[in-house]
Design goal:
heterodimer, A: 180 residues, mainly alpha, Four Helix Bundle (Hemerythrin (Met), subunit A), 0% strand, B: 101 residues, Helix Hairpins, elongated
Chain lengths: 180, 101
């Protein structure tokens, strides 16, 4: 019973936030609505015993990514950020309509047609133990997925260097250097 | 009523749909990046739901990698937006079509 109430409340929070992101005119409001959705998802993670992921979700997503969004909005200026909005292309609205209605219909069909989406076959990565979730996650991360983990560090380095290169002000050439 | 895996999957699907529609409807690059985050979160929720249902920690590990990729994507995407607006103030998503090779 408690599970159901928690799920429903968190689901409403998630969906309200998601709709708020795409409906708000002001980008700052969109970013704050995104925080709401992310907190709702963190609650869903907790209710499925993914406690560590819930903590990471709040710290990384709500704490870092949304702050980065807000930082860039403030850097550009709220008015400038809002003026980036332009009218949609005609084909885009139709594409959005087709995508939305089609995926909703597909989701509804799957709910009605499939009783249990889970085959019940055990996975390869090791069983979940509710008390040792973090230990299992770490063991899986550093054994089965260790190459992916190392590649992730490479990806982060590339992203950091790329962001620094992109956002750097163009270096003004000194007059004598420009003459050479 | 018992909360089954399907409920989480449907919620994830709805978040994905809302994010996808937003990505197509909104033309503000900042909002489009936020919509990508919504779609990634819908997928994350499905991964965790399957991880719980199948008793497999692998789903939660994948969510970890999705988090990292999302962070990298936002950093580079926002860097691009800042760089473009610095070089050509007032440019919109449509003006970027000049970038096509």
């Amino acid at each position: 019973m408690v599970d159901t109430i928690v799920f429903l409340v968190a689901a409403v929070i998630c969906l309200t936030g998601a709709l708020g992101v795409i409906l708000a005119r002001n980008p700052v409001h969109s970013a704050l609505m995104l925080v709401m959705t992310l907190f709702g998802i963190a609650v869903q993670f907790v209710s499925q015993e993914a406690h560590f992921l819930a903590a990471v979700q709040v710290i990384v997503y709500a704490g870092a990514i949304v702050v980065l969004f807000l930082f860039v909005i403030m850097l550009l200026g709220v008015d400038t950020a809002q003026n980036l909005e332009i009218g949609a292309l005609p084909a885009q609205k139709w594409a959005a309509l087709c995508f939305g209605v089609g995926s909703l219909a597909l989701t509804g069909y799957i709910i009605l047609a499939v009783d249990n989406p889970v085959t019940g076959r055990p996975g390869m990565g090791g069983a979940i133990d509710e008390t040792a979730n973090v230990r299992l996650l770490a063991r899986s991360l550093f054994s089965n997925y260790v190459y992916a983990f190392e590649l992730t560090s490479l990806l982060l380095v590339i992203a950091v260097i790329g962001a620094v290169v992109l956002a750097r002000k163009p270096v003004k050439q000194l007059p004598e250097e420009a003459g050479r | 009523m018992i909360v089954t895996t399907s409920w989480y999957l449907v919620l994830g699907a709805l978040l994905f749909i809302i994010g996808g529609v937003g990505l197509l409807v909104r033309r503000n690059p900042l909002i489009m990046l936020m919509c990508v985050e919504l779609m990634l979160n819908g997928v994350n929720l499905s991964f965790v739901a399957f991880s719980k249902a199948l008793g497999d920690i692998g789903g939660q590990t994948v969510v970890f990698f999705v988090l990292v990729v999302a962070a990298a994507e936002v950093v580079v995407g926002l860097g691009l937006i800042v760089a473009i607006l610095r070089r050509a103030p007032g440019s919109t998503a449509d003006d970027l079509s000049v970038l096509k090779g």
